[in-house]
Design a protein that fits this description.
- It is a single chain.
- This protein is an alpha+beta fold and about 120 residues long.
- Helices cover about 40% and strands about 25% of the residues.
- Strands 2-1-5-4-3 form a five-stranded antiparallel sheet, sandwiched between helices.
- Strand 1 and strand 2 form a beta hairpin.
- Helix 1 runs antiparallel to helix 3.
- The longest helix has 21 residues.
Amino acid sequence: MNEITIILNEFLIQTKSSSALISGAKGKLITSLHLDYSDSVAAMSDAILSMSDKFLTDLAKGSLKQLYLKTTDGGVVVMNKINNSHSVIVFSNDGSNLGLFLRNIDELATKLSGISLLK
């Protein structure tokens, strides 16, 4: 396992999340854990993040840092920017501990931003 995979795996265990991925510029998959169709998910996530960021910019509300999605089954998806070109996306089947989850994913993004591959 490389450093990025180890950090992601520790995060999944700590937060009891089900899967995660890191995408780069233009939705290029960097790595993923426990996720089918990772390339497609990375590309779609990039489109969602790009459109959401443009939306906020057009409304003069700042730039996007984190996007939260809730499913009808109670699961959550959180997309967090690592920097201008990389994002981490985490999937959890249980959104009951949302505050801790959101704080932890923000800390995860900060930790990942220090890795040379993601700069």
